[in-house]
Each structure stands twice: as structure tokens, then as C-alpha cells.
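stage 2 :: seqdesign
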């Protein structure tokens, strides 16, 4: 009987709630009661759901706009990153006999009678002898001095004398990956971080949520003007602007007339 009385007293709305280690527990099962400890009522992972609704929504919207702006900035900055180009496609002016995979070739720049070695490279893939527009893929380019592959216009085969020579029509570097994937990755990271911070500060962080809820409460205490009052005030302000503008215009005309009469201003 005493046990029944204890449970009745504990479960009574007027009785103090039983606790364990500072956390409110159920009187019968002794299990923690969600949402009663310290006012942390998490609905869907939110702290104080339903409170300070409009202030929290507007704050989240502003943070989301900032996140979108940051993602757009990240997209533009990704273009500044130079993607590695370990291999390049070299287009030849005509078919060449003797090209084979694994050969080490020399790339030169020929201007008139001057020949300048730009570096060496290894043939990654060679075209078939019957190809009308031969294309050679080269890699492992080793520059000589400060020269770059883009300035070369002749390919010299191995051996002395060289097994073949070929004139290059153009060189197209092959990027290690498409820059689009890097841009999308940057933008996605910014979006994830920004939206995560928005959820944390607007929905989970106790201090910031309490501040937003308190702000919403204070906004409800503001005595907003009625529609009629706003219209009347607007009419008064606009009318005063026109009256002052007209007065200044008349004064300006009078001063111009006086100054012309005394010869200060010329017609």
C-alpha cells in the first residue's frame, strides 16, 4: 500500500519529478524522460522547436544566401587552379614511319635555321602508319632549361642520325581530371559546411537559439504602426519634400534674377 502511495505521489502533477544524476526519469520504468531535462525539447533534432519561428526562419534564410554566395565564389576561384597535365596529344603534319610506344623522343623549336631543344618525352601511344591525321600521345616530359612543351614544333626520333623527324601542327595537354569536378567539389563542400553551420546555430546551439527566441519575443512587443498611420506619414513626408523643393526653386530663381541685374551672372 505504501508503494502505491509513493507512485501516486510521484506521478502527481504537483509532486516533484524524480531525478537520477540530475536527469528527470520516469517514476515506474526509471527511464529518462526526453524533452524535460533543462528545457531541451529536441523535436527532429531541433532545440526549442516552434519557438522564435520567424526570427529563426529569416536567420536561416540569410545564412543560406550567404552560403550560396560563398559557393558561387568557390566556383569562380576553382578556375584559378592549374590541373596537372602528365600527358599531351601531339598532332603531326603527316604520317611518320617508325613511331612506337616507349620510344624517347626530343622536342624542338625550329625558327628559320635556329633549332632549340625544348626537352625529351616518352611516347605513350603511337598512331597506325595508315592514319591520315596521326596523333601521338607523349608523357614524362623533361624540359631543358625553362622551356615548355607548348613552344615545340618538331619531334625528333631516337638514334643518331634520328630515325625520323616530324613537324607538329598542334599540342593539346591532357588534364589529369576535368576542372568541372573540382569546381563541383569545392561548391559542394562550401554548401555542406554552410548548411551545417546554419542548422547548428539556428537549430541546435543553445546560446544562439535562446538569443533568437528572445529576439522573437521582443519583436512581438513592438507596437507596429497601422496601415492608415503609415499612409498618412508617407503623405506628410512626400508632401513636405515637394514643398521644400518648390520653396528652394523659387529662392534660386529670385537669386539668379538679382545676380543678373547686378552683373554677377551673364545671360
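stage 2 :: out
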Amino acid at each position: 500500500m505504501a508503494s502505491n502511495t509513493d507512485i501516486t505521489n510521484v506521478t502527481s502533477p504537483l509532486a516533484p519529478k524524480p531525478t537520477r544524476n540530475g536527469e528527470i526519469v520516469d517514476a515506474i520504468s526509471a527511464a529518462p524522460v526526453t524533452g524535460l531535462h533543462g528545457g531541451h525539447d529536441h523535436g527532429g533534432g531541433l532545440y526549442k522547436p516552434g519557438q522564435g519561428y520567424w526570427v529563426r526562419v529569416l536567420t536561416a534564410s540569410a545564412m543560406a544566401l550567404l552560403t550560396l554566395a560563398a559557393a558561387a565564389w568557390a566556383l569562380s576561384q576553382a578556375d584559378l587552379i592549374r590541373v596537372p597535365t602528365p600527358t599531351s596529344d601531339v598532332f603531326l603534319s603527316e604520317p611518320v614511319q617508325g613511331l612506337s610506344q616507349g620510344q624517347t623522343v626530343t622536342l624542338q623549336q625550329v625558327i628559320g635555321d635556329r633549332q632549340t631543344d625544348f626537352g625529351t618525352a616518352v611516347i605513350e601511344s603511337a598512331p597506325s602508319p595508315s592514319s591520315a591525321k596521326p596523333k601521338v600521345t607523349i608523357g614524362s616530359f623533361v624540359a631543358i632549361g625553362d622551356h615548355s612543351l607548348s613552344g615545340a614544333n618538331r619531334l625528333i626520333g631516337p638514334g643518331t642520325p634520328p630515325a625520323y623527324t616530324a613537324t607538329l601542327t598542334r599540342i593539346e595537354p591532357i588534364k589529369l581530371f576535368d576542372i568541372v569536378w573540382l569546381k563541383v567539389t569545392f561548391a559542394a563542400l562550401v554548401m555542406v559546411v554552410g548548411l551545417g553551420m546554419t542548422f547548428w546555430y539556428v537549430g541546435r546551439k543553445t546560446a544562439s537559439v535562446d538569443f533568437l527566441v528572445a529576439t522573437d519575443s521582443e519583436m512581438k512587443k513592438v507596437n507596429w504602426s497601422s496601415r492608415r498611420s503609415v499612409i498618412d506619414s508617407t503623405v506628410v513626408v512626400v508632401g513636405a519634400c515637394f514643398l521644400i523643393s518648390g520653396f528652394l526653386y523659387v529662392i534660386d530663381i529670385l537669386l539668379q534674377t538679382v545676380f543678373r541685374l547686378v552683373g554677377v551672372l551673364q545671360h
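stage 3 :: structure notes
- Helices lie at 2-11, 53-78, 179-204, 206-220, 227-261.
- The first strand starts at residue 19 and ends at 20.
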